[in-house]
UniProtKB/TrEMBL annotation, chains A, D:
Coiled-coil stretches: none
Name of the protein: Phosphonate ABC transporter, inner membrane subunit
Residue stretches making up the ABC transmembrane type-1 domain: 84-267
Organism: Oleiphilus messinensis
Key words of the record: Cell membrane, Membrane, Transmembrane, Transmembrane helix, Transport
GO MF annotation terms: ABC-type phosphonate transporter activity
Highest taxon, organism lineage: Bacteria
Subcellular compartments: Cell membrane
A single cellular component GO annotation: plasma membrane
NCBIfam families associated with the record: PhnE (TIGR01097)
Transmembrane domains' residue ranges: 24-45, 83-110, 136-159, 222-240, 246-263
UniProtKB/TrEMBL annotation, chains C, E:
Species, as recorded: Oleiphilus messinensis
A single GO molecular function term of this UniProt record: ATP hydrolysis activity
Gene3D superfamilies: P-loop containing nucleotide triphosphate hydrolases (3.40.50.300)
Record key words, sorted: ATP-binding, Nucleotide-binding
Protein name: ABC transporter
Transit peptide in keyword set: no
Record-linked PROSITE patterns: ABC_TRANSPORTER_1, ABC_TRANSPORTER_2
SUPFAM superfamilies noted in UniProt: P-loop containing nucleoside triphosphate hydrolases (SSF52540)
ABC transporter domain mapped to chain residues: 22-267
GO cellular component, one term: plasma membrane
């Protein structure tokens, strides 16, 4: 920066050739990957027999099924309400325990908090494994060891929660602004303190979001609980669908929807307070 | 004393999955035991629970019986006889599928894998008519409501299911001012399927087994009434618990397993 | 028509519970309450003027600049920017009113994950729009060249391809200045533009502003804690203190000492 | 701050009573909520029949099932590999389209980008609705309108993806540091530019994480694709489990696990480059 | 034993592709390459000294401070902190070596979502640990009192309960200083501690540092762009320029002008 030449754009004309080359095409490798992916996508698209006209023309048929859902049936509202309570109870236990375990696992599975790269690899592997093994298999394991019933269902929910929250918590920790955490490092704070004070406050909105999503997911998870005979609203819904009582199904969907909205309202409020201090 | 009773995959008794209060009450009253009743949506889970002694009794279908018998030794307590319990193959009347042979090369929808009356039964029926279900048709496994919609649209040439289920579908169509019963055609049906069954795990005390057996046979009518409390279930009346059930009655089911490509469950065990 | 006209501008510290109650009560504001950031500010700034705003930490200088661009809403009073009452505007009218005014933030507010050149090009987004101004690799050569020239003006052309989270404090401040220049503003708000610059660069930047003011008729409003800069590079000095306008004079009337006195007995009261 | 009194801690002793009261118990309302929740949790815990000893004693049984999984069966490796390809294809189409739609919906459904609070409420409602309606119902809708097969499966995957990504994208946008976005506002940039340049770069790691998780979820989703007869690896897995062929199931789990690991490696690399510029 | 001893310290701009290649090639560093932040710095700082580091933007002052606490690894050379080679340490030994040294960051690095008082209490985490130091509402009265006194020292005791994202630039800078005081350091690194402070507060802070140096024997290393501060409040001045140590003298040998000359012909080369 010299005092004489830079006061106005006109005085020191640059020519376009002085500019560094623009890197629109970042590298051969990434171009190759991108083109490969695009080709795969298009190929898949043809395989999926994608056709918007067909979807459009079929919409009236969809209407027929919807019309069978209204008016929602109210004849079983009482057992449904009690089923939803049972489900909520199992979901709360499974999610709370799962979230607590996930937090510990996530600390081991985030690049910026893991004590050792090997621990990182192993815990990531475990979290992925929890997700990959299907619910039915988990249900079998737990049925074999603790029998049919709510306990096996809760254990499966815990595993589900860890598979989901473990990953999203770890990612949330990795995304936190490293500044405050560096400051704590500089003063010689221990890792635990650094995580508790430098990272968790930054990740809190994400943690809350994932946790409450997980709770909601547990409430919705008919499959898991039905597998082990734990009942709940999912079983009600499955039976209603199976018996073509779409009007009953509609009632259950509305009940679950109300619950989902409530959970999301809660999430949104807490998050808003933390993010915007409002 | 507490007795754990699981029930799984009883086609037509879905209501029992959620409304079992009356049934359990009758059972407790007549037997004097505390009954822990567990409706399980998945047969695999029920079977494994019995194998690992986590449940004492399982009320289930013939296909499950064969598997349980193969994987773990279990006793038959009572059979559960139902009228009109057989598999049918349904097509649309105007699509021109007249015989099972006409289905060759087309898609046929079945229920979930391993279900007696929605998978094994219909496939065996096809095989009985000389159509190899694993090679000559394209089998699609889905939920029955989905299969029904697919049949109406013509995505599948036929659906294999339980006869009673078919009747209830037809009734619903009529109620909703949909298709008339005449729009559907049954092009194959199997023989009446072996009975659903109440089994006891080997670990269960013989005294309890005997007690349960007597409760089921002596109070068959009361129990059936309790099962049928829901208004949707009335059409299944006429069921009965019976004691004279032999393992060999299930050899037809074993043959089904061979037909659908799982010969490991098809070995006939001694009679 | 003044470039900027502020009348009766009042802002409460919005988070104290007292303040919240105060405001919610029938929407009227009680001026006798404490907890004001500033209260009833009045001043006009003429086109082509260079005005320095000084005042102790927390006096509300940054808040004032934010109010001037309607980034936050004042609780009372009005701001006219080039004759338009900015808090009354919204949507595209607001955008149009903001476009000729550039604001250099105290905390720079760069998009840290993008390269320097892209950040400078973003300055053009006030006047233009669309993907061609989102990333430098999508921009036209012309735009890139302009951005480059703005970078030259702050002396950092060789950092054009560096990601913004890898800059030193002073470098990132200068990128923020380049971005503001890219906007080709008629009115430049600068919040402590030289705070983390070394003495030489700081002087350069102030001289650049002065030169732009003289050659292009730019109106400049800058906040500074460097009294020497305030004295050397402004036509007029405004001081905020104790939530009031403590001073509003021509620069030539003031000396370093007279200004310093403003700060000296500021605390413990 | 006065020049004479503050040079050392000793000179201006404060007494503890000068301190502002500590707000350990934030407010009556939150205390009440917390206690209520705790009570509910404990009540649920008893309902769930939670018992660690039972779990511990049952572990050997779990081992029995695991032992039936090894050695994984290799007899059907070829149809399995082709099933995984088919699944991947449907998953890619469903997820890519779903992610693109989600991004638009999320912009309408994030507090800091929504054009109007009403739009916010409506789009949030739609996203929640997509999640609440069970897969079986979606399958029915789509089968009724476009018929059985991969297209219906893809549509269901799209709905699933929107239900998930729509929410997580919106939350990610809300969590971005508002600074750069404020700077763009100040210069009069349009909303679109502000979102593209001020918010998206900040949210990118989260967006990538949610998107790739969603892809992985689609690959794993046996239920959705199985329902509409679209087959794929999930259906294979379900059949293996239903038929007690745990050795085959193990093979499929391993295949899916490899895919999940690959997707996560990809995610981790891209994210790391964006977060740490490495 | 000097409080801080830097020998042959070299740091490459780590992100240029050239630099990456340079380092990966058998782990040796070629000193003739460009792209150094700084190269072969050597100096010792005695206990109780107050040292000002000056230099143009991007000269590597902040990077140097980070290297001194082993927050980033230098490419060559060693740093001894109170006699311990800090880059050789890890785990609890590293923590113990860092504890007596406090660093005030240029960008403050407060935990913005927590209140001021909690942030100040975090300063105690170097010496202690556990949940009682995480939030002010969990802390003992004693700790709170100490934190409060540190806040008093920077004049912001009345903001104790404010959340840190609602502070002005200068306020947040002073909270960072209070946090460093809470650490009760024997060695204080301060990266432009007065950059966004008003003239009066800036002087107060520097005088506070000076007083602590004199009364408690604190060693102080501060970076400043305010040459007057460097001259008034240091015993010794070190200047970084063109990736070298350009100057290392006793303060009394220098004048404002002699220092200013350092910066003047710095650019365009
Ligand atoms: N987001 C906010 N919410 C509530 N109060 C705030 C917020 N930001 C700033 N304040 C308060 O408003 C007052 C004025 O802040 P402002 O940033 O305008 O000060 P300033 O004059 O720019 O100070 P500095 O010289 O330190 O930058 C301060 O007391 C500050 O604590
Ligand atoms: N994270 C980083 N990665 C790569 N290069 C960096 C990084 N941070 C800073 N640099 C570069 O290293 C050099 C020294 O930066 P540093 O922050 O130490 O400068 P400084 O002397 O503190 O400058 P200032 O006075 O502006 O604060 C600069 O050229 C800067 O661009
Ligand atoms: Mg300010
Ligand atoms: Mg610096």
């Amino acid at each position: 920066m010299s005092e004489t030449t830079n006061l106005s754009c006109e005085k020191n004309p640059l020519s376009p050739s002085d500019l560094p080359t623009r890197q629109l095409i970042p590298s051969l490798v990434s171009t190759f990957c991108f083109v490969g992916f695009l080709a795969f996508f298009l190929w898949s698209l043809t395989k999926a027999e994608f056709s918007l006209t067909e979807l459009w023309q079929g919409l009236p048929n969809m209407g027929v099924i919807v019309s069978e859902m209204v008016p929602p049936a109210t004849d079983r509202i009482e057992p449904m309400a009690s089923a939803i309570l049972v489900t909520l109870q199992m979901a709360v236990v499974g999610t709370v325990i799962g979230v607590i375990l996930s937090l510990f696992i996530a600390i081991l599975a985030a690049r910026n908090t893991t004590p050792h790269p090997l621990v990182y690899q192993i815990t990531r592997g475990i979290i992925n494994f929890f997700r990959t093994v299907p619910d039915l298999a988990w249900a079998l394991f737990f049925v074999a060891s603790v029998g049919l019933g709510p306990f096996a269902g809760t254990l499966t929910l815990i595993v589900d929660t860890i598979g989901f929250c473990g990953r999203f918590f770890a990612e949330a920790l990795e995304e936190v602004d490293p500044g405050p955490s560096e400051a704590l490092n500089a003063m010689g704070a221990s890792s635990l303190d650094r995580i508790a004070v430098g990272l968790i406050p930054g990740a809190t909105p994400s943690l809350i979001n994932s946790s409450l999503f997980s709770l909601e997911k547990s409430v919705r998870s008919s499959v898991v609980l039905g597998l082990v005979g734990a009942g709940g609203i999912g079983a009600e819904l499955a039976v209603s669908m199976e018996m073509f009582r779409y009007d009953q199904a509609a009632t259950i969907i509305i009940l679950i929807f109300a619950l989902v909205l409530a959970v999301e309202q809660l999430s949104s409020r807490i998050r808003n307070r933390i993010i915007n201090n409002r | 004393e507490t007795v754990k009773l699981a029930v799984t995959d009883l086609v037509g008794l879905e209501e029992l999955q959620r409304e079992f209060g009356a049934f359990v009450n009758v059972l407790e009253e007549k037997s004097g035991y505390d009954i822990e009743f567990l409706p399980v949506t998945n047969r695999t889970a029920a079977v494994e629970a019995l194998r690992f002694k986590k449940v004492d009794f399982v009320l289930t279908g013939p296909a499950e019986y064969v598997v349980i018998k193969k994987r773990t030794d279990a006793d038959i307590v009572v059979g559960f006889s139902r009228p009109d319990y057989f598999a049918v193959i349904i097509t649309m009347a105007d699509q021109g599928y007249q015989t099972p042979r006409d289905l060759a090369g087309h898609s046929v929808a079945f229920g979930s894998v391993g279900s007696t009356s929605k998978h094994l039964g219909p496939m065996q029926a096809l095989a009985d008519y000389g159509v190899a279900p694993t090679t000559e048709i394209k089998a699609i496994h889905t939920k029955m409501p989905v299969a029904w919609e697919a049949l109406k649209r013509g995505d599948v040439a036929a659906v294999g299911m339980n006869h009673l289920k078919f009747l209830s579908f037809r009734d619903k169509e009529q109620q909703n001012k949909g298709m008339e019963p005449g729009a559907f055609r049954v092009i194959a049906r199997g023989p009446d399927l072996p009975n659903d069954i109440l089994m006891a795990g080997k670990h269960v005390d013989q005294k309890i087994v005997a007690k349960m057996k007597s409760v089921f046979t002596d109070h068959s009518q009361a129990l059936v009434q309790a099962i049928l409390t829901g208004e949707d279930n009335q059409k299944y009346s006429g069921m009965k618990f019976i004691t004279a059930v032999k393992d060999t009655d299930y050899n037809y089911v074993r043959a089904m397993y061979a037909t659908v490509g799982y010969p490991e469950y098809a070995e006939f065990i001694g009679d | 028509m003044p470039a900027l006209s502020v009348k009766g501008l009042t802002k409460i510290i919005s988070t104290t519970p007292a303040a919240r109650a105060l405001r919610s009560r029938s929407g009227r504001v009680d001026l006798n309450q404490p907890d004001f950031i500033f209260k009833e500010l009045d001043f006009n700034i003429q086109t082509g003027e260079s005005v320095a705003i000084i005042g102790p930490n927390g006096a509300g200088k940054s808040t004032l600049l934010r109010c001037c661009l309607s980034l936050i809403q004042p609780d009372l009073g009005t701001v006219h920017l080039h004759g338009k009452q900015i808090s009354q505007l919204s949507g595209s009218a607001l955008r149009k009113a903001r476009q000729p005014a550039a604001l250099i933030f105290q905390k720079h507010q760069l998009v840290t994950r993008l390269p320097v050149l892209s950040n400078v090009i973003h300055g053009a987004l006030g006047g233009a729009w669309g993907p061609r101004y989102w990333l430098h690799s999508l921009a036209s050569s012309e735009t890139r060249l302009q951005a480059y020239q703005c970078l030259e003006q702050v002396g950092l052309a060789d950092l054009a391809m560096r990601r913004c989270d890898q800059l030193s404090g002073g470098q990132s401040q200068r990128i923020a200045i380049a971005r503001a220049l890219m906007q080709k503003p008629k009115l430049l708000f600068a919040d402590e533009p030289t705070a983390s610059l070394d003495p030489h660069s700081g002087r350069e930047i102030m001289e650049l502003f002065r030169a732009l003011q003289r050659s292009l008729g730019l109106t400049i409003v800058f906040v500074s804690h460097d009294l020497q800069h305030a004295l050397n590079y402004s036509d007029r000095i405004i001081a905020l203190k104790d939530s009031r306008l403590a001073l509003d004079t021509r620069t030539q009337n003031e000396t370093h000492n007279s200004l310093a006195r403003l700060f000296s007995d500021n605390y413990h009261e």
